[in-house]
Amino acid sequence: MILICGEALIDMVPMTVSDGRPEVFSPCPGGSPYNTAVAAGRLGAPVSFLSRLSKDFFGEILVKRLVQNKVGIDMVARSEQNTTLAFVKLEPGKEPRYIFYTAGAADRSFSQDDLPAVLPAEIDCVVFGSIAMTMEPAASTIEALILRERNRVISFDPNIRPVMIHDKDAYIKRYEKWAAASTIVKISGADIDFIYPGLDLEGAARKILEMGPRIVVCTLGTGGATALLRRDSGSPVRADAPIVDLPVVDTIGAGDTFHGALLSYLELRGKMSASALASLTQGELHDALYFANKAASLVCSRQGAEPPYLAEVEALS
Q: What is the pLDDT of residues 176-227, one digit of tens each?
């Protein structure tokens, strides 16, 4: 089972109206870890979510969507605090831009009291990252969890939103601690530009790999995805996979869906352990990347973070 922890929020997504009114926003369930959980659930992987969610009507929407997509909620704490809101700005050819309203919100307030004393034995992968790691006490709570559970596969997606980072040097120091504690690091080209300006893809991936992860996966938008796998001998294995050329409506949730699909592919094929990951062949690594790219291509072909179902991904050549 995959356990995904972090923020769950409402994306206020811009919509164009035809009667001349200013741009309006539509509320949509979102948050990077939340989207990743929904993607994994739709792809058939056993998955649960760990966070603190509001009892307000937005929180009810978030919980209902998890249940509808077969994501376990036994480890979701509920509170009277409000739900985080994220307003999204979409512009052609650019990464989405965000403004977050998080003060006093439920997911931001995720604390060590919300953590299970012991995780169920069937959980073999813990997933974390995104803006939850820029907010306290949530960041320290999740950090404590991943350091405690390093005997399992740990998968990290920084999914950096610069607007949420007020001290870049301090963030990078913690980011490198989290990367070193992880088995898999999934990172975007935009994340690399922020953390390691001046380093090319290959240089950044190797730098991260040297910190300790078994696999570093770089997503490159229309450039597809690249992965470096570190063998026990220390020698790296590289695999690349393209995207599928589909019309792009928007890119909200693309990286989250990719991450969920990659982990689902590994989980459903019995590869979710440190030893199994170390033994992946170049062909298996390519197939995992291509499966994840197909899922990401599909989510980009529809509005908002609406990950595909397994049959849709399998039908895409």
A: 999 999 999 999 999 999 999 999 999 999 999 999 999 999 999 999 999 9
Over the stretch 80-111, which tens digit does the pLDDT of each residue have? 999 999 998 877 777 778 899 999 999 999 99
Please report, for the chain, the start and end positions of each structural domain, with discontinuous segments joined by +: 2-315
The dotted CATH code for 2-315 is 3.40.1190.20
Query: Of all residues in the chain, what percent carry a pLDDT higher than 90?
Result: 86
3-state secondary structure the chain: CEEEECCCEEEEEEECCCCCCCCEEEEEEECHHHHHHHHHHHCCCCEEEEEEEECCHHHHHHHHHHHHCCEECCCEEEECCCCCEEEEECCCCCCCEEEEECCCCCCCCCCHHHCCCCCCCCCCEEEEEHHHHHCCCHHHHHHHHHHHCCCCEEEEECCCCHHHCCCHHHHHHHHHHHHHCCCEEEEEHHHHHHHCCCCCHHHHHHHHHCCCCCEEEEECHHHCEEEEEECCCCCEEEEEECCCCCCCCCCCCHHHHHHHHHHHHHHHCCCCCHHHHHCCCHHHHHHHHHHHHHHHHHHHCCCCCCCCCHHHHHHCC
